Model the fold of this input.
Amino acid sequence: MADVLAEGYNVFDTQKSPEGTIKYLSSPADVISLIQSGKLAEHILLVRGGTTTFLAPALSMGAIGVITMSGAPESHLGILSREFQTPCVMTAHLTNSDSRYVVGNTDETHFEEIARELDGKRVRLDCTDNDTGRVVAA
Amino acid sequence: MDKPDYDVLNVLALKKMADAPTIAAVIAASPADVEKRLESLAGAGLVVVAGGSALPTNEAEPALAATAAEVYAPVRADPEVEALDGRFETTNTQFLTAMSSWQQVDVGGRKVTNDHGDAEYDEKVITRIERLVGRLEGLVAALAAHDARFSTYSTRFEAALAGIDSGDHDLVSSPMRDSVHTIWFEFHEDLLRTLGRERTE
Done:
């Protein structure tokens, strides 16, 4: 059984199972340099979600997969990921940690831990389940 | 920054990535003027141009927030705007739910992609979306009384809804078009910036 590193809401069911190195994007500048690097399609993009509306250009330029640490499948980003058919796991939490995202009451350390643990890892997204999206070690 | 620069950078920040003609169409300026302003904004480190499109830098949002605080102080003090804005969050939540039901249908408790084969279902969702867009009218008008540029949201919504009525259903949610979802999202971000509030979620 493959090693599930993190899981969260699956935004839409898809047989697409993108594989790539996780890249944590914390600002518009991160998105700009990723697009300019020409290596967008090599990465699964990790963002905080919710307020990270700066991800839109990456989606329209061909991002292959997205993981967020907050936000719901009904959010703007969820709607965009379905429109672009970009597999997306939202409000992901680490399977080896008890820390969970709670709306309006989440410590910075929660986001820092996920970014630290996942950034740079080679993974595959499994978005075949109706409810749960999984980040699997590749 | 001066107001014409604000208007250009604001639209770019709402669209996240755009070329001069796209921005010009929204603010009723000439593409050449927008081009010139983008160049000067790039010189100020607020914009970068990549592959023919401009993108806002990290410094764009704080600069816009600072200008909005000055320019829109009277809007923030307007009790009518405040009252209408108080009802926006509820409408917005209903709108996002309606958008999701346009994209996905519930089949036995399982969400599956809407294949748009059920015209009656689609019509119901479109009717709901039209009603929700209608609920923004008061707020758009109250904002437009302070700054006429807000009335372009009404014009854009009307155009998108007319297109949907004539069968162009991409205008419901396509991110590549000036769809109802695209316009709504931009309006929401614009509203937050105008009133100096953060996005909740």
Notes: The radius of gyration of chain B is 18 Å. The longest strand of chain B covers residues 47-50. Chain B has twelve helices and four strands.
